[in-house]
Amino acid sequence: MSAGRLSGKGAVCYDVSCVTPFQRAVYDALLRIPVGKVTTYKRLAESIGCHSARAVGQALRRNPFAPQVPCHRVVASDATLGGFEGHRLGAFLKKKRGLLESEGVVFDQSGRVLPEYFLV
DNA sequence: TCCCTGACCCCCA
DNA sequence: CTGGGGGCCAGGG
Q1: What is the spatial distance, in angstroms and rounded to an integer, between the CA atom of A51 and the C1' atom of B13?
Q2: Residue A66 maps to which CATH number?
Q3: Is residue A55's beta carbon less than 7 angstroms from any atom in nucleic acid strand C?
């Protein structure tokens, strides 16, 4: 019930009472990714001082606030999609890709996000 | 506490 | 391209 705020200019709020401190750190980091850009599990992990991209994947996998908390803007290090809404299946990835494309992100023919869309 | 499972990553064959 | 192995760490049982 307690509304969590995001770092800085809060355009989105989420319920902090049902997430762990680690998840909150991950979600706050997500909210700093601008529309039309993506980052990777690894880089997001590094940005919050975590040495495990996998642990970040765990948090995103359980994200109850998608796509308000934009976990679709996180992809794998090889620029492939990773997962969405708890799954790695094509049907879910299709939705993830659709969201990204609607934000202007472009993919190459092998289904990878083009380099220029990565957050620097 | 130990044990196991992952939307990960990196290296090598 | 595919597969195997090691390392990483949070969360749940």
Answers
A1: 27
A2: 1.10.10.10
A3: yes
